Fold these 2 entries.
Entry 1:
Amino acid sequence: MLGRGSTGRAGVNMVDSNGGHDSGAKEEQRSDGSVAVKSTYKVLGALEDGEAAGVLGRNDADGGTPIGVQGAVPNTDDGYGLATPDALRLLGILDTDGTTFRVDTTVESDPEDAANVVVGYEENVVENDAVGATISGGGREWGGPNAGWNRVFDDYGTVSGGFGNQAGGGYQAEPGPAPAATVGGGRLNTASGTKSTVGGGAYNDAEGPLSTVGGGDGNSARGEAATIAGGYDNATSEVDSATVGGGRDNRSGSDFATVGGGQHNRAAGTHATVPGGKRNRTSGAASLAAGSYAQAEDDNAFVWNDGSGADTAEPEDDADRFSSSTADGSGVTGSQTFHVKATGGARFVTDAENNAVTYLSGGSGGWSTTSTRTAKTNVEPVDPETMLEGVDSMEVSTWEYRDGDGDGAGVTHVGPMAEQFHEAFDVGDSEETINSINADGVAFGAIKGLSASVDETDERVDRQADRLDRLEAENEALRTELQERDDRIDDLEARLASVEQRLDAGVSD
């Protein structure tokens, strides 16, 4: 056992608790002028007095390393560098296959002060008179990318392992105490915010109070309660509770904004979300942009884009993005809007057997709905005349939906009321709605009823036309007969006139 005194290194005779010298002790002169003592026991103290100390070491020097007691033993199954009560200030070293174990504590003058524990590389250090700090291991000499000792700057900070890691110390924008910071491991990670955490990885920073970086490389959680789960080169701004789940080069830059993952995504609106994808942006509050090259610029807007139309040669050009503020052939823009761009089509399935399907084909502006007979059951024919009568019984009006104040919303519609529709046809799952399939079916049924009525009318008209043709033929025959009679009468009248002329001439003679 070596004891360090105020004048430097000196040999210490081996003694037992009764003051007797260890008969196995041998002194050895070292090259640095110190004297080493070799014996069966480096220090052996056997006590009968409960108030006495088995080993007591003190260093009163003004400089140098203040080691009161230092012990070193070779690697053995039952070797001890030093074993003492917890309340002593000590530096104990156990060399086992080149691995160093060091415990650095303070004398507990105040029971509220917690001791520091430092293990691993000899330069691992607790700074700023911090208490309750822990360095569980790791660390190495500086030099090159794989170097650096571990440091704890503030009370109750922890570095579990790795190298070049720092817990506490504040960050450049707000230097100052940052207690209870934790780095789990990895290399060159910094947890500089109060109660901040870096789980591992490399070059990660948890700068904000209560911030967390789970791992990855080059991530920076700057705001209060910010979270970056992992990934590469992701960051949150100095805002409240921003989140990046992972991915690469993602930014969450507003209070409570979230980027789930993906690449080159930006969430800039309060409570905004980008679940993933590529180069999506949100700037509206509580907005969502998903897919690829989607941009939700307005509050409470939902935008999903399939990535079509983007100019990858200039990926930062906003004109390439499908946006909530661009009409693109419709008047639906701005806040509280829903936008989906799917150039290959869109499909909705509402049953487990894929029988109930509604979809928009690519390039189509109208919905297609499953209507094959193989997907239907309980098929019953309808009476077209009854359907026509039902349509005739409904009042068809123009109307507007009410807005939040009970006034008209400004868009005029035309159609019947749902209550009259259900009273006339008794179909659908709600008396307050009209299903478009049922509306179309009623229209088809009524048209068929109208068609039957028209056919019947046509038949009557045909019969009447035939009769009219017969009557016209009869009239024509009568006209011909009358004409012939008129011609005969005219002939008779002409002959009568001739006779009368001759008679008149004879009388004159």
Entry 2:
Amino acid sequence: MISLSSVMSFSGAGNVFSLRGFFSVMLFLCLVFFCFSDNGLAGSSVMWHHYMQRGQENLDSGRLEQARKDFETARMLDPSSMAAVNDLGVVLYRRGDYLQAETLFRQAMSGEKEMFEARVNLGLVLNRLKRWDELLELCDQSLKRQPGSGTALFGRGVALYELGRFEEAVTSLESSIEKGSSRDEYFSEARRYLKKAKARALTGAAVPWER
């Protein structure tokens, strides 16, 4: 059995070098711990941005589980961050967990500084859940905050269409197309709904492709 004393005295110069290396590593670990502790605000901020950026990259690449872990880590680093809450909601939305996503989007909206993006995302959830009255109310509130929001106008048009208010739907959908561009995600869907709304407004009956 090799004794501790023989290990310590194995090589004088080498032992000094090893001890210096050991203390260097310990000093580095202490600095890392300080940076990421509650007192190391700068370090926490850097790591928060790192996980948010990596989470977005994973989200864009369809790696939803990795994105979820990144946003949850960012949320732990800064519990007051509504951006992390909102992005975590986006992950759940894409996974089809609409009710959980709704909870997170509403939480993001309730922050000290409301995220309009979270409001838009909540509209997507209400659309999926076919809660048209709530969607209409949400979009009306959104338009009071941002009157020119093409996304809010589109959501409002969809809600009006599904509620049977076709002429109002036409007006809202036309405005959403006017405010937006072909680069907007909702644009092609708005044109499709507008075509249906115009037909229903004229006839009041179901158009052939809806039967």
